Amino acid sequence: MNTTNSRTHFGFIGFGLIGGSIAKGLRAAFPDGELTAYNYYETKPHPKLEQAKRDGVLSKVTVSLEDFSNCDVLFLCAPVLTNVAYLKKLLPVLPGHCIITDVGSVKENIHQEIKKLGLEKQFVGGHPMAGSEKTGYENADVSILNGAYYLLTPTASTLPEYTEWMLCFVRSLGCLTLVLDAKTHDRITAGISHAPHVISAALVGTVAELDTDGSYKKLAAGGFRDITRISSSSPEMWQNICLTNPDSIVEFLDRFGEKLSQAKEAVAAGDADALTRFFAQAKDYRDHLS
Could you report the per-residue pLDDT of 112-124, keeping only the tens digit for each? Predict the structure, then answer.
């Protein structure tokens, strides 16, 4: 990894598919590093964290946030609302040199909390645009990050060397990088990630309501399965995302609704030309996606 090795203590709040994959990448880049994850169960062992420790990915599992007092980089990998909630708890604990980053799919809400708590110099928001419908540490693999975009959203006051450290690290994982402001990030991800999950869930829900005898499920094949695969993702995660990026999601869904209405009118009217344009325009844009 082409960056300084002076940062050797890494902390994790949340440790699922993405957190576990990042941790595996850290362990490869920093074989002697100290990786600590927080067990939010507190009164009982966390099986997945204990497994990560047995795997040699984690060095320590803790029930005390005080154990992050020597942390060099803290990764917030819980659902977006949980990440925000932990910032206030961590405020008295984290040292001033610690880079604070997250992996949330929404950025404006955590930026607002970072500003409120006076942590702007330390924060480099992060969003690895990777993963699958599978969840949990048991499915974590650093390879899912390879070739994926890892978006960074530093604040206007983030120390440049903190952003540079994050850029070097995520590039070492094989990620493509792009630095955006939080508002632009949330507007784009509403269109290419958040709203599609809402649309997919609505499609599945509609079919489920019609499937009174199981025939829809029995016959559901390639097209339906491809377009609805993402509906197998974590409901809690997508609830959090919708609650924290409502304006951008609603704005996109309004535009989508207009487009859907146009298609409905063309179908109802038997307008062959309009239908050809509708499908041809979609095909042209889709065929040019990288």
Answer: 999 999 999 999 9
